[in-house]
Amino acid sequence: MASSTGKIEIPKSSVTVDVSVINSTSWVGNVPHWFVFEPLYPGFERNGGPTFVFYIYHKPSNSRLLFDLGVRKNFRTHFSPHLMKGLDEIHMQISVEKDVSEILVEHGVQPGDIDSIIFSHHHFDHVGDTTKFPGTTRLVVGPGYKQRYLPGWPENPEAAETTSDTYEGRGTVEIEFAPNDHQVLTIGKFKAYDYFDDGSFYLLSTPGHTVGHLSALARTTSSSDDGGGSTFIFLGGDIVHSCMVFRPTEKYPLPDQISPAPNSAPFSNSTCPGDLFASMHRFRNEEDGERKSRTTPFCLVAGPDEDLAESQRSTDELANFDGEDNILTIFAHDGSLLDVLEYFPQKANEWKNKGWGPQGHWRFLEPLMQSKKEASHL
User: Fold this and answer.
1) Strand partners, 118
2) Which of 287, 302, 315, 366 is least surrounded, with the fewest CB atoms within 10 Å of its CB?
3) For the chain, which residues make up each domain, given as ranges?
4) Alpha helices in 107-233 (DSSP H)
5) Which fold does the domain 18-247+300-350 belong to in CATH?
6) The predicted structure's pLDDT at residue 378
């Protein structure tokens, strides 16, 4: 499926939110490629990454949000036996050092300061440990979430990915994206919900991976800040699990020279030829392969998504957002950005001035580069 290439029109606003990326200390590794994408490329047989959480501060309302919550520290003893059995059967490796609540406290934010926790979806590596937060902290979820996934295990013995205590003693608000709601609009092809009703922070309906999957679009600078246009961070959740499924595109093609080289430190002056990767592209030997290999994502979405076709549609539209130079894409498990980003309590709002977008855009290709290097020594 081809991604759309139209300009993303986002309503103007002078209001922003402060965004910080929390490296939650969660790591989900040894994930087989067929959980993520197809076809397989050398170096991508097994995949892994961090679990990014986002801290959002809205100054006009003095509201603090979290987008996702990572893996809870006691996951091995707390989750359902059938979930743990399934993870063990595919040899997935999971580690976590701290609950997100601990990271907040270390930097002067108390769990009670958090007004809402937005779940991109119900999976164990995103819902964390809400019991560390008071009942005044509500949960925000996407359409159809409560009917499909609550009450969780063990209250529902068949449930796997989420637990009953996640929701007990607190409100869970479901965003319905109702067309008659004045806070609902369309951005690109995604239904959007203007969370603070001022254009600073939008929830996006990005279904496919799960029912009711949510992403978000945070305005990090406004046109009034420097006279230019607004900038945004696209908080992806699990809309994708690899850059391989949404890069390159016609809006952001694979260049003749990539700098920095994917296997070099970010912000270095290293370069490597783009054709090194284009030559390995699935379309390279097809008609018009030279162009397609530089303007079409390397892979399609694969794996146990609840609606794979819907997931691909969401991914295709993500590619359209990702092609804008004023939007930085960060999905939950993007390990290629680990040494590009700055982390909580540092703010990510100046990401564009700091060059995070171009510095991180092609780093996901490092395994391909490494496999090519190893093959040349055989």
Assistant:
1) 67, 140
2) 287
3) 18-247+300-350
4) 124-127, 145-149, 223-226
5) Metallo-beta-lactamase; Chain A (3.60.15)
6) 39
Query: How far apart are alpha carbons 246 and 318 in whole angstroms?
Result: 7
Pairing of strands 46-58, 37-38: unpaired
Q: Is 374 exposed, middle or buried (0-12, 13-18, 19+ CB in 10 A)?
A: exposed
Q: What residues contact 285, with CB distance under 8 A and at least 6 apart?
A: none
Supply 256's token pair.
Answer: 């003749």
* CA separation for the pair 107, 156 (Å, rounded): 37
Mean of per-residue pLDDT scores for the chain: 95
pLDDT bucket at 213, cuts 50 / 70 / 90: very high
Q: Residue 84 class from Cβ within 10 Å (0-12 exposed, 13-18 middle, 19+ buried)?
A: middle
Asked which of 100-114, 150-164, 236-250, 318-332 is least confident by mean pLDDT, the reply is: 150-164
Helix (H) or strand (E) holding 375: helix 366-376
Terminal-residue alpha carbon distance, the chain? 36
- Say yes or no to pLDDT of 228 above 70: no
In whole angstroms, give the CA distance from residue 363 to residue 322.
15
pLDDT at 303 over 80: yes
DSSP 3-state of 90? coil
Q: Please provide residue 191's backbone torsions phi and psi, each rounded to the nearest 5 degrees.
A: -70, 140
Q: How far apart are CA 352 and CA 342, in angstroms?
A: 13
- Residues 290, 273 contacting (CB under 8 angstroms): no
CA 297 to CA 318: how far, in whole Å?
12
Nearest to 22 by CA among 99, 81, 121: 99
Instruction: Write down the residue that tokens 């809870």 correspond to.
Output: 72
**How many residues appear in the chain?**
378
C-beta separation of 272 from 369 below 8 A: yes
Q: CA 164, CA 78: separation in Å to the nearest integer?
A: 11
Confidence at residue 377, expressed as pLDDT on a 0 to 100 scale? 46
What's the token pair of residue 377? Answer: 């020594």
